[in-house]
Amino acid sequence: MKIHVTKPLFAWDCLEDSPTLKTIKQLLETLPDAELLASLEAARGHGRNDYPVRALWGVVVLAIALRHPTMEHCLAELRRNESLRKLIGIETEDHVPSKWNLSRFVERLGCEPHRSLLHKMFNQLVSRLGEAVPGLGEHTAGDATALNARRKEAKHAAAEVAEGLPQASGGRKEYTDDEGNVSKVVEWFGFKLHLLADVKNEVALAYHITDTKAGDGETLPLILADAQANLPANRIQTLAYDKAADTNDVHKLLSQAHIKPVIQNRSLWKDEHERMLPGHDGRSNIVYDEAGTVYCYDRESKPMVRRRMAYIGYEPERETIKYRCPAMHEGLECPMSAKCNAGKSYGLTVRVPRKIDVRRFPSLPRATKKFERLYKGRTAVERLNARLKVFWGADDGNVTGSRRFFAHLGVVMVVHAVFAVLLAAAPRWEGTLSQTKLSPIARALHGRQKPCEVGAPTRRRRKVKPQPQLYLKFAG
Questions:
Q1: b/e per residue, 415-436, with b = 16+ CB within 10 A?
Q2: What is the pLDDT of residues 220-234, one digit of tens each?
Q3: What is the DSSP letter of 400?
Q4: Could you tell me which residues come within 8 angstroms of residue 195 by beta carbon, excluding any fewer than 6 positions away?
Q5: What is the C-alpha to C-alpha distance for residues 13 and 429, in angstroms, rounded to an integer?
Q6: pLDDT for 437 beyond 80
């Protein structure tokens, strides 16, 4: 891969459509698959070893990494490409496995403990990136996407059901407009993939597979716990999600973890548009709407004027959100300013305790520019979903059975994480004649520098003049 210095750290647009043998060799060397291969070989025991486990595993990885539409295409390329064959330990064309050998292997890969070890490989790669890349996972976003798959017959799926694996089922999602009318309907048959990704770099931090009936708010605690385990302590600062995660349980969980929720508010109020704050009676002019935005009324004007109060900040010691008079804060003329701000140098101050409703009053209010900016970052996880489904083939639609689907998607996530490591560790070039150089993060991923030294200032080396005796030596 040839990456320019001006490209981002994870330059996904620089991935090769047809990776070279050098890139494939780096990918295979970066895979932390020793424990998985040992487990698969132990499960095989003293059975037939016509096709070694390492070769079968290499074929499955190459089918995803080389973006083959089917496993048969990958096997056909292995039969005609001797150099590629030898990278995964297949010496001759006769030793290339058949498609039914791969089908049985993928079925076995989706069984325990191999399925958990495959997920563990992904977690190890993300942990490696989290230690080497400062700020990875600081601002996150989550989303769920539909993946198509096939279902086994009931008599053949009994073992999968006994293992607790969800079965492919029909899913339906309705999209509504601002007036609450259904504007779009999406239906599919398969599973749901729940992702938590880094907003800036579009790298998956955790994932979970469920049936189509599982809600986003129910699954979010699981993927959040995995992401926290994969990253350094207290790395996650914000989490953006759509309305599907706007539940009391999710907001309480994020509040306990000191993570600022960037979640749009669900519209549940039918008849009323605003309410009085607790502790305020009919004589008060302070109200709030369904999204938790606090307003004050100018009752002297005819008709009355409603203004949004100025957000000052969140007070973690008091667990309150602080607001001030918009006229004093923004320099506006208000007929009620003398009455509201009498004797107050900073104007009227209102503190809203979050315990009133943690879902309605997040630590970062929704009616702020920072909230809008962070919520726009949620599109990063949507682009990541599209890359997994279109580029890596996660939404194949021809995978039958939960075991094969979990194994197939697990390999896709591992390949995604491996390429993220390779992109971050790739040398950068500048100009046409300049030499390529390794960044501090790349040196950390290569093991040439400790993670704690990443970002530390580097000293310039003084150029040393060549000694005359060297020239005399070569001249002689």
A1: bbbbbbbbbbbbebeeeeeeee
A2: 999 999 999 999 999
A3: B
A4: 142, 143, 144, 145, 204, 206, 207, 223, 381, 384, 385
A5: 16
A6: no
Q: Cα 145 from chain centroid? A: 12
Q: Hunting for tokens 């049985």 — which residue is that?
A: 104
In the structure encoding, which two tokens stand for residue 166, read together?
A: 């969800």
Q: Which phi and psi angles does 222 have, rounded to 5°?
A: -70, -50
Question: Structural domains in the chain?
Answer: 3-118+400-429 (no CATH), 133-267+375-388 (3.30.420), 274-358 (no CATH)
* Distance between first and last Cα of the chain: 42
| The predicted structure's pLDDT at residue 453 | 46
| 20, 190, 218, 264 from 367: Cα distances, Å | 49, 37, 26, 11
Quote the tokens at residue 162.
């006994």
| pLDDT tens digit sequence for 19-69 | 899 999 999 999 999 999 999 999 988 777 788 999 999 999 999 999 998
Q: Is the dihedral of CA 124, 117, 38, 41 positive or negative?
A: negative
